[in-house]
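Revision sheet: structure tokens.
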Amino acid sequence: MNLDDTIGDILRKARVSTGTTMEAAATAAGLSVDAYRQFEETGKAPAGTRWVELGARLTLDGGRLQRQHDGWMPEPVDLSKWCELRMLTSTGDGVTVNCYLVWDEVTREAALFDTGYDGAAILSLIDANQLQLKHVFITHSHGDHIAALGAVRERFPKARIHSGNKNAPVEHRIRSNDFIMLGSLRVTNRETPGHAEDGVTYIVGTWPEDAPHVAMVGDALFAGSMGGAKEHLELARQKVREQIFSLPAETLVCPGHGPLTTVAQEKANNPWFG
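Predicted:
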């Protein structure tokens, strides 16, 4: 799976979020405006691009940007460490999005983290493994992450919804000290607003064989990037540092878009957090 954001995507997000003009970004990069515009559009850097200066202008780590441009990818993750964790990817409205199904291998109690677009694939996986869906955890309420919620709830009307949305029904709203047991698995939450006002990261722990924690981060963090935060960039970065990067280095990061990664890999390589 490719990274969700190209270098051009990252530059555009950072330029918009910092209020930097195309001309100022081009000057920092040592490029003409036309060359810089093409750079953002294609993600391919012209020869002589001044990475460090461009990164400094856009509040990014220029060295990490260049490394990603040259082909950095997170190391592949072997999901067999986590006994019953599945990633499902679906596409709609030109957007590809991830959701995740987790269950306890003994009780067969399951939890879904976001829904993506394809409710049929989720229900098929539940049926194939003879599961009972007990919980649906929403990382944030953007349409691509909850598109199939209606189909899932129709099949499992008693599944409890968990959301950081302050306008959600009271029984669906998370609290900071909540913890949910799913058989032997324990699910806690951390607020990670910035990309979305109701952004939440869910931590799944106490896995069999002492497998590392799993962080369901939604769009708060991607492999090599993060979700757009036009008006709340510093809040978004602060929350990632405080709530996600404070987790153990080996924690599996499950983003809403793009490939799986780990806390260690993002702390060392993500250009938003140099």
